[in-house]
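Repro case for the chain-ordering regression, as requested:
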Amino acid sequence: MSIIYVLIPIAILFVAIGLCIFFWAVRTKQFDDLEKEGFSILFDEDNKPAAKHPVKESTKPNDH
Amino acid sequence: MTAVPCFHCHEPVLTGSRFTAVLAEQTQHFCCAGCQAVAETIFENGLSDYYQFRTESAVKVSAMPEHLLAELASYDHPDVLADISRQHEQLTEIELSISGMSCAACAWLIEKKLKQQPHISSANINASTQRALIRFDSQTLPLSHILKLINTLGYQASPFVADNEEHVFKQELNRYLKRLAVSGILTMQVMMLAFALYFGEYTGIDTSHEGYLRWISMLLTIPVVVYAAKPFVISAWRSTKARQMNMDVPVTLALYYTFFASSYATVFQTGEVYFESVCMFTFLLQLGKFFEFRARAQAREATSNLLKIMPVTATLVTEQGPQSTSARRLQAGDLILVKAGETLAADGVVHEGTSSVDESMLTGEYRPITKTLGDTVLAGSVNHDGLLTINVTAPLAHSRLGQIIQLQQQTLSQKPKLVEKTDKLAKYFVERLLVIAVLTFLLWYFWWNPDRAFWVTLSVLVATCPCALSLATPTAITCALARLNRRGILIKNAQALETLPDISHIIFDKTGTLTEGKFSVSRVIPLHETQDDAAMLNLIANLERYSEHPIARAFLPYFTQALALDSIQVKIGAGISAYWQGQHIRVGSAAFCEITPVSEAMVYLRIGEQPMAAIQLEDKLRPEVPLLIKTLQQQGYQLGMLTGDHSSQAEYVSNQLHLNFMVKGCSPEQKVAEIQSFIAKGAKVLMLGDGINDSPGFNASHVSVAVHSGTDLSKNQADVVLLQPDIGLVAQLLQGGNTTARVIKQNLGWSVGYNLIIIPLAVAGFVSPYIAVIGMSFSSLLVVSNSLRLLKK
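-- result from build under test --
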């Protein structure tokens, strides 16, 4: 049973990492709106008529 | 004919095939041009996914009035923009509140549309708070353009500045989340280890293994007691310092006593450990508090969305011609121009022009008042039909409106204190509990068995730890808030809910609260024999179509058939004249029609030389009011009315409804004085109102309710806001208050009763701490599920 001396600290490490991620998520406001994000997966990034505009979507991050 | 639902808003299409469009190779029908335009825009921009994934139909699009669109440009003024936004290097960050959003797909739609714009660097729409956070380049893209863009999708956006309090709420909510996570996740870990220890008890366990598991449990519990339980410690410390002990004192004591006792047991390898109880306890209490806090924060957000900022501008008359300026910069002696439909920006005297002005929001007077040369006018009142030039006598801050707002802030500090009943109970309970715990320790230590003294005291503390007691009220209130919210009653101040069962007096405002706040035809007095009323009203309605005056709207329902009218002339403040079938027709005041006034009639009709009819108008009671008043009277409430209206209509309404008391011609100051005199006599007052003139009274009463059509200011001040145009909801509100009080009483009864039974057993040493923990958890669960019943009703 001496394996628990190794396994439990490892488990605690994972818990600590999990908590850190949760804190980060709260800090970056990921819990502010729980409704919209659930929908985002349903929407396609590009639609046929949107083909006129896709440049704006993809180049945006380079703008600044 | 079965009505096809509108493709955009799902309302039945009553216009046939007038509004159709071919979208994605299919012909779709629309109810109006607005919906059609929005749907076309959505498809053109490649956002048609919206229609596929939305869960709610859209709100019917109402086109933005032209003059409002023009007004948007005033947001682009650098001074105004600086007031409502923040600057991040090159970019301007602004928060908008968006109305018309019905589901998360709406948020996606707006976000997508905005992100297609090259000058918007980021746009984030929050579907639950209905707000948008946008960063854009204000040099190249004016704000008004963004607002119009959102408008093309069928939503109304307006700039919005969250108040300080809201920021604090948000931060607090995040802290709650973190504490919940810490206590929740660590409770799971400690519980897992505790199970190993439980089984070890029965099947035997190595002392070294047991010690190891205990040490780990202790380590994992430290963040819970130090971080997650911190608010309890702070609150307990504060209340002890103020000598007003609250529920957090025994909670803190039980938590820390148990924690230190278990740590002692771990370090010296003796006795029992209860780390899992410490963790679970903290988690349960945090959970209850979190839900209560979140409900309050949501109610707050919902109402502050109502507080939109309109730039208060005025048109200043200068030598170079009319010029737009900020209302705050107006000085006494300035001349301003006020067009029909505009709100007056300052107190003043009419310099030129004649018009009727609506002062009902400030004075409660329901009739528009005719203002002409030399009459005083008030800031905040609305100019109905004429063009007025006003000589400003006082800047906005010193105007009547400014005074009312000041008065309202003064009364806020005098608001009657709502004592939380549970706190009173807590104080009583806590003091006795602490005495019992100390006595138990002393008894066992000196007389019975010094070795067990420490552990018996521990089980007394754990068994009596008022977990259930402190969950009793917040859970019940949270559930009640959610339920009332579903019915269209928004409660901003949860304490108001606890005060509702004690209410003895209900005070109503008249104009806009008991009555509809608009005119309707009450009686037609014929002045000539051969006429039927319907045809005559239709004739009047035809003429009144050309008037902006609120009286004109009273005739709208009587418009049955369009008549061919010639040479129509509108004389402001007097009436309308026209030619119909060769006859000269006049509709308007008695003087305008040259008819001797008939009792209380406000509109007259004259055809040719013949006086035809006199029409009496009234501000009709809301249809649900008589039933509401009757119900409330049966329940034994004292009902009264405080109105700013001087006219005899006040008595008429009061007599019709058999109210217990009525005061007419009240200024806002008098309303406050009346309410305070009732409170001085020991009454608990609920006030219902809509206007700016009611808001000081709101703060003076125990509970205040703003009606659906009320002004932003009154909604912001009130404890309760009705979200539907039905004041019958007040009865439901009171009933909800009573049910909540009953559930709280049951909860308290159970948890106090449980404590009374367990205390003697624990003191006598019959309750091992394990049993104490089970008992505590069981009674907490019972209390929570009892509160959940409130949701279902």
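Ordering looks correct now. Helices of chain A lie at 4-27, 36-40, 54-59.
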